[in-house]
Amino acid sequence: MILFEAKEVTKRFATQTALDRVSVSVPEQSIYGLLGPNGAGKTTLIRIINQITAPDSGAIFLNGRPINPDDVNSIGYLPEERGLYRKMKVGEQALYLAQLKGLSHAEAMRRLKYWFKKLAIIDWWDKKVEELSKGMQQKVQFVTTVLHEPKLLIFDEPFTGFDPINVKQIKDEILFLRERGATIIFSTHNMSSVEELCDNITLINKAQTILEGSVEKIRHDWAGNEFEVVFGGEVNPSSNGNFTLLSSVFDEGKSRVVIKASEPVDNNAILRAMTAAGQVLSFNPALPSMNEIFIRVVETKNKEAVKN
Amino acid sequence: MNKIALIIRREYITRVRKKSFLIMTFLTPFLFALIFIIPALVMTNEDKDFKKIAVIEDGSDLFTNVIPDTKDTDFEYLEGVKLNDIKNNFAELGYYGVLYISPDLVANPDAIQLISRKQPPIGLLDHISGSLEKEIEKQKLLAYNIENLDEILRTINTSVRVQTIKMDETGSARETSTGISMALAYIGGFLMYMLVFMFGSMVMRGVIEEKTNRIVEVIVSSVKPVQLMLGKIIGVALVGLTQFALWIVLTLALVMVVKTNLLPEGAMEQLQQLPQSFAEADQATAAGSAGTTVTAEQLTEFQQIFAGALSMPWGLIIFSFVFYFLTGYLLYASLFAAIGSAVDNETETQQFMLPVTIPIILGLVVAMGTMQNPESSLSFWFSIIPLTSPIVMMARIPFDVPAWEIALSMGLMLLTIVGAVWMAAKIYRTGILMYGKKTSYKELWKWLTYKG
Fold it and tell me: What is the pLDDT of residues B137-179, one digit of tens each?
């Protein structure tokens, strides 16, 4: 089931177009990556989802019906540039933000105690925000984002400013939230976390969608004709008409070999050559990282734009 | 709870809890109280000590017993004592000073000296010269051999006070007191200027704070920007009203405490006795040679002030003050909020502050001019135009303003507020989410025209 959908959303500011007929469709209980270079229009799209700004044309749907002002209570948003009132006490502030999202005082209090204990920040309850380290402030902010148990969570660069232990803790919490039924839109430049967390992505460049789909499928689509073969023992298969040897690394009794298949690709012929060369332990298409895909897609697009 | 109520509550509570609020709230009444107490202290301190003055006439008895004793000064006429006998040891003899009157005082006004160790109070000098002048006039008149001179002198003893009476269109007259009106105009206009500016810029700083620490994006994902803006403006208005109410209560309390504990007995009674009837004071003045002449004259001045103060339209003044404070504040706070949203930090506010500050300062300048000339057409227009009317109208009201002018001014004010809040909300909504680049007036205009 699709929880959130944006259809043909367009938003123009005086001098530029921030979003040009962008469509996004987020399945329920999935993690959806919203990717793109700086200034591509991601923040504008997120603000439209939060109803902070309205699109010039196009429509936004939540749960299959057009979004309405009351829906802000079922959305949680952690902006990239985040902050809290510096002079206000942590607990008081979290309580205030929770009540703004529609929770009653008692309910907000109960949930805050739970989360503050879970993330080990309960001792900070009566401290002023300005006395907290950046990581601590981020944790407080994470709690206030998820506290009202929104159906749709939007995290914009949630891991910046955290040490590796806290990154792992927040990742675990995000996965836990999805398990409990939340749908998550996740905007980041950190591509390894995209591979790790996201089910689907949309890549926006210069206000337009240039790539979308499931992470698995995209990586396979972009695999090209490269394969990674692992051999037992030191093996150096020599190139022939079917493939070219790109690299071969021998380490701890195994050879990790990358080859590029020639067109037309004949997998069986390659496999025969491999088995002839040595003891094949595994044979896989070499999947490009999301990082590579991101760079290649965006650069190709920008070159096209320059040509035109 | 309603979201806007939550915002108002936060804005109010965080400000009221601040140390600076407490300091301002508790310190200002001391200043106010001083304004009331100092005149009372001065009045009582001046003549507090009982004085005895030796009068030496150098052989003649022309002026013997001419200077009457007052409440706290006795004059002793010493016969057969030379000035040189007493000049150096009058203090040891228990005298405050020596008054030496030369016989040719009638011809030569400088032929009189008061020798004392301390600077004698002005009141005492007035009393001495006043009594002597009267006596000399009398003696000069005596030279003309007029019959019943004493009787005539008593009846011609006059004093003049200009009573200002204003006629309105219906022909009913009202006594006015220009001094009181001026004081009220000054206090009303200046206080309005101060409060509007102070609390207006408090709103601006709040907006900038939220924008620079980036919490605004989180909040506007929960509430509409206009709700946040109005919540802040209303919250700060309540802070202002609270502070104002506390000032009045604390000032009154302080004056009470000082009155019962600190001031010497009689000081306040003296002040309270002032608003006696004019008749009584006139009698006292007419009595002429009675020992209390000086005090009686002072009394009538105070009576005039109090009578003038009582004749002021207090209900209208208080109502107008609250109305113009709330509306003027709302108008300027919206503009200040819009400015705060358009900049990244407080130093950048300068370029937008000017057009907002100019009308407010202009209002103050015209209000000060209004005190001199309340009926000028400049004052009229500035008290009608909404940006300056809160300050200028407060300065005009003590001088009696036709009802239609007040109604027009208030009506225009309300209309302007609707426009200003609408405009501010549009700029605010876009401004709070804009970072980095410096905003121009052109940009502001664009924000005004964005839809949605």
Answer: 888 888 887 777 778 777 777 666 666 665 655 555 555 566 6
What is the value of ipTM here, to two decimals?
A: 0.79
pLDDT band at residue A72, thresholds of 50, 70 and 90?
Answer: confident
A74 touching B, CB under 8 A?
no
Per the prediction, chain B carries an average pLDDT of: 79
pTM of the model: 0.72
Pick the residue from chain B with its C-alpha nearest to A84.
Answer: B215
- The reply to whether residue A87 touches residue B222, judged by beta carbons under 8 angstroms, is no
SS3 A202: strand
DSSP for A208-226 reads: EEEEEEEHHHHHHHTTTTE
Q: Which residue of B has its CA nearest to A46?
A: B221
Given this structure, which CATH class describes domain A224-285?
Answer: alpha beta
Asked if B435's CB is within 8 angstroms of A81's CB, the reply is yes
CATH of region B51-156, choose from 3.40.50.360, 3.40.190.10, 3.30.70.790, 3.30.70.1050? 3.40.190.10
- Nearest beta carbon to residue A96 from set B10, B433, B451: B10
Residues of each domain in chain A carrying CATH 3.30.70: 224-285
| Radius of gyration of chain B measured on its C-alpha atoms | 32
B13 vs A: CB within 8 A: no
